[in-house]
């Protein structure tokens, strides 16, 4: 398969290496010419030490080049750049193009998922967009450690095509037709991971982290059901699986950022220290709007928003969560 990759960050490059190693022809583009030059010259990604990019991977500064004649286009840019990248590439993307997106987020202004953003940014092109999501740290994929992921699309045949492209000895791919549920999980689990990191930074233990993960998943599921998603999606790899890994792993940017905030670092400084995109922060505006629009109770999401955007004291927010009115768990 001829695959064009838009975006040369850690996830894009870990997947590029894997796809090349299993026999696909891969060309990579980045909006940053200096990044493309460095990758082409050094064959390493600065945030994936020890990973060597195969010589067969081709790099290009030319957006038309990366889009031309591809069996699959892989969008691997941060969520806040998905629309601008799709709009910039629109003239070069053929009608009916198969696209896989690995960005996890929601557009704050429109409340669209990333697959919806791509489709909206390509008017008249009628692309088929498959969301790839799950517990998939780039650092582990770059080392060929066993990983599972979900290819989600309302078009089952398209999901199966992407499944076949990515499936190999170190990555097992499942399909799911509930693309909205899969994408909702991918965006909102980052906010809960921020909460788990904040809890650890304050000095709370495993009990608190387990509570945040479990009740956070309940919040995501409540919203998903209001949006017509399949409840089983939230108990699967894109839901529970991705939430667990993002809220507990040392590789998680959201967890690290939250931990710094819990230790007293200002949110903007914490993001700077992480040094990469913290998608949970980017997802907060949309999550808050969805909670209000669909009248869904999401106390953990609201608490994280107060800490990030309103300078609330993290420990005070935990006390506020603990002292909410008594509830049944099955709510």
Describe this structure in words.
The chain is α/β, with parallel strands linked by helices. It is built from 16 helices and eight strands. An eight-stranded mixed sheet has the order 3-2-1-4-5-6-7-8, sandwiched between helices. Helix 7 (156-166) links the parallel strand 7 (147-152) and strand 8 (171-176). Helix 15 (299-310) packs antiparallel against helix 16 (314-322). It starts with a strand and ends in a 9-residue tail after the last helix.
Q: Could you give me the name of the CATH homologous superfamily of the largest domain?
A: NAD(P)-binding Rossmann-like Domain
Q: Please write the CATH class name of the largest domain.
A: Alpha Beta
Per the CATH scheme, the topology name of the largest domain is Rossmann fold
* Assembly category: single chain
The global form is globular
Order of helices and strands: EHEHEHEHEHEHEHEHHHHHHHHH
Q: What Rg, in angstroms, do the CA atoms define?
A: 19 Å
Name the poorly predicted regions: none
How many helix segments? 16
Span of the ends, CA to CA:
47 Å
The assigned CATH architecture of the largest domain is 3-Layer(aba) Sandwich
Task: Give a count of the beta strands, DSSP E runs of length 2 or more.
Answer: 8
